[in-house]
Specification:
about 350 residues; mainly alpha; two-stranded antiparallel ribbon; 15 helices; binds fe (ii) ion
Length: about 350
């Protein structure tokens, strides 16, 4: 074949394979949409039961919880179908997604709550902090335990699952316990700080097991996708604004010391981007990792807001990342020149000793 013909053939094949990919992606999407529709109908009562557990929360927060659960169910189905899950695996995954945050609004067990009150003082900031953090950190374990009770034989039969009951309960409860993961960004910081306090009080420290098995990994990937999305980045920025200004101020000062003018909002945004990247790195399956990368790329194109109504800072990801690159370049140049100087000094000393 002449080289021009060969080139044309390659171009045609490329166009064709792009088209095939597009058709396949659309097919996958519509199958996943259909499954989402069916799951929402089949498990509608369970979805409502979970939503009713969030009653008593401020409206906005409750809406966010319900929207998050629906996003996780949707992404879980997409990922599970991509990975060729069987019907029973898909059902176990859907139940895990629906139930994974069921206890997130529950109050603390009475015994530990009393101990926190006694140690820190009921009206203290420290008590409010540890109460909120502890609740967040144990919700995977408590939801996992509760899922075992909800998924009775009777419930499973009623919801068109006719065999493998023990196995399904085991897979669901494990996936929920493991959705806490090895804690990217903010959660890692909260876990470490809370465990230190628990240790000082002689209490059992909290352990978050790693995701093992197909269903666990897909549920975790769906949760991590949510953290890496535009919505997840907004959430981290708002947590930084409300609870972590001291840390961001420290970062701003470190940048300033190197001559880089970073704002508080940009420090919060960089921390959110770091959490998103860590979330992606927690997933070992390459295909799922790519999906999260795609989500991060989309989220990077969005402008974010930091602060409150009267004083809002508009944030641009590329601008903040450029400042981070500048800062890291300066730090590494300084480290290099310090290393060069030390080496020179060592040579000088050796020369002096030889003379
Ligand atoms: Fe959760």
């Amino acid at each position: 074949m002449k080289s021009m013909e060969r080139e044309q053939k390659i171009i045609i094949e490329k166009d064709f394979s792009e088209e095939v990919n597009e058709v396949r992606e659309n097919q996958e999407k519509s199958l996943a949409e259909k499954e989402m529709q069916e799951a929402s109908e089949l498990f509608g009562d369970l979805i409502n039961q979970v939503s009713s557990r969030y009653e008593g929360m401020p409206d906005k927060m409750r809406e966010n919880f319900i929207a998050h659960n629906s996003d996780i169910l949707k992404s879980s189905i997409e990922f599970g179908m991509k990975k060729g899950f069987s019907d029973n695996e898909l059902k176990a995954l859907e139940l895990s997604a629906i139930l994974h945050d069921v206890t997130k609004n529950d109050s603390l067990p009475e015994v530990i709550d009393q101990k926190f009150k006694k140690t820190f003082g009921e009206d203290s900031f420290e008590y409010k902090r540890i109460e909120a953090d502890y609740r967040l950190l144990i919700h995977g374990k408590t939801a996992s335990q509760e899922s075992m009770e909800i998924l009775s034989d009777e419930f499973l039969v009623k919801h068109s699952i006719i065999d493998d009951f023990e196995n399904i309960r085991e897979i669901v409860s494990r996936a929920i316990a493991e959705h806490m993961g090895p804690n990217p960004g903010y959660m890692g910081f909260v876990l470490e700080a809370t465990n230190k306090k628990l240790k000082d009080m002689g209490e059992t420290e909290i352990v978050h097991p790693r995701a093992r098995g197909k269903v666990s990994e897909v549920l975790l990937a769906a949760d991590m996708k949510s953290l890496a999305s535009e919505h997840g980045i907004c959430k981290v920025i708002s947590i930084r604004y409300n609870f972590n200004q001291a840390q961001d101020r420290k970062v701003v000062q470190e940048y300033k010391d190197k001559g880089v003018n970073l704002t508080m909002g940009e420090a919060a945004l960089l921390s959110a981007i770091e959490s998103a990247n860590q979330a992606r790195d927690m997933i070992s399956d390459l295909e799922l990792k790519m999906e999260i990368s795609k989500t991060i790329n989309e989220a990077m194109g969005v402008e974010y807001k930091y602060g409150e109504e009267d004083k809002i800072e508009i944030l641009n990801c590329e601008k903040a990342l450029q400042k981070q690159r500048d800062y890291l370049r300066i730090v590494s140049q300084e480290e290099q020149s310090k290393k060069d100087e030390d080496e020179l000094e060592e040579v000088r000393t050796r020369l002096r000793e030889a003379a």
